[in-house]
Structures are given as structure tokens and as C-alpha cells.
Amino acid sequence: MLLRYRGSEGMYAWAFHRISGVAIWAFILLHVLDIWLVGVNKDLYNEVLAIYSSPFGRVMESLLGAALLYHALNGLRIIIMDFWPSMTRYHKQLWYLNWVLFVVIGLPILIQIMVPAFGLEPPFRFGS
Amino acid sequence: MSYQVTRSGRARPQGSGWELAIWYLMRLTGIGLFITALSHYIIVHFVYDPAIQNSVWVTARWASMAQRTVDWLMLTFVLFHAFMGVRTVIGDYTSGGKRTILTLFLYLAGIVLFLMGTMVVVGLPMPPEVPA
Prior knowledge:
The complex is a heterodimer.
Chain A (H helix, E strand, L loop, with lengths): L7 H33 L1 H11 L2 H29 L7 H24 L14
Helix pairs in contact in A: 1-2, 1-3, 3-4
Chain B lengths: L17 H30 L7 H7 L3 H29 L2 H28 L9
């Protein structure tokens, strides 16, 4: 049903926005709980944080980053159309622009996060 | 209720009042999160690898009051935006008593998380002074 209702870019943009939004909401529940732990039980917090650097954690972080980046870019697209209604005419082009930015911004981040899971050094180095 | 033709997440509510205020606040907090949440993600996943992060790292990061302030603002933005967003989802798929109960639980969870997050951002002791 999800894939047949109306169809076309506008519906997919909306559906992905909703799915990524609910996924981010679920992560926020977890993330506020885990940072709360740093104040009440540091050892347990450190154990939880170790999951983030595991290979499984890195896959989940990449998915989280993809959801965040899509939701952020499409959110800007929505704001542009809400406050500049004539841009609604170009909603498809804006959506394709979102995907171009998604790949260009997302790919280096994906590589940086996933490479250590294969025992290699992260390609981008900052500071020391 | 009349809807404008829109490709938006949600059509702008007609008239004024709470619903319109929430509609504007979703967009304002969205812009706030575009800056704070994306830079937060880039700092803790791209610039610094999670493998070097632990409670000591967090304490050092929160040695700065500016950092704590930004993080508390981000907490406020994200809880408003995420919980009001899920409220829209609940409103779309439920009605009557079920909608009321789910929305009340949602608000309760949001308030509890706001208190927990504020507690740690404000309350975590500063790290001991280290000579520069």
C-alpha cells in the first residue's frame, strides 16, 4: 500500500520523512537515556558507549546518519516550499537535489565511520 | 477544514492559536537542529571516532559552559521537534480515546526525558582543574 498510494516523488519524500523521523525519535529515547547514565553510573555508560564503536554499532550509526541527513535535507525542502510557495512547482527537482547532497555529504562520513570496522585507520585525520 | 495544496510535511493550520504556533515552532526547531544536531553528529562520529569516547571524554567536552549551553539547547529543540512530530503521526493513525491516551503518554515521556537530559547537562561535575 505504501508504495502504491499516489506514488511519485512527492509521496516518497513524505513517506521517507516520516519513517526517518520516527526512527530518529526512537534513537533520541535511547540517546537521552545513555547520556543520563554518565551522571549516575559511569561504568555502565562506558559499557554502552563501547557498543557504538563495535562493527554492529557502526552499521547502526551509519543508518542513523542516513536518517538524520535525509530528514534534515528534506526538512529544508519543506521549509522552502512552506515559506516560498512558488517553489512547490519544483518540488521534484528539490527532492533530486536532496539526493545529490545526500550522496556527496554522506559518502565521506559513511567511509570514515565504517572503515575501522575492517581494521583500517579512518581516512580523515583531525588534530593529533 | 480547508487545506492548501501543499507538498509540505503538514499544511499550515488555518487561523491562529496553539496549532499554528506548534507549526511554526516545528520549522524553527528544525532549522536549529539542522545546525546543532548535524554538527553534533559530525563531531562525535566523523571528527572523533567513538572508540576514543568514554565518560572522561564527555566530562572534558563539558568543561566548557558554552558547549553545555549548546547541548542543552539541542536537547530542548530535539525533544520538542521529535515528540511533536510523533504527536502528528499518532494523530494521523488513531482517534478518540486511543489518541488521547497515546498522546498523554508521549508528553509524559517527553517531559521525563527533558528532566533527565537537563539533570545530566547541568549537574555533571566539572572536571578537576588541569594545568594547561
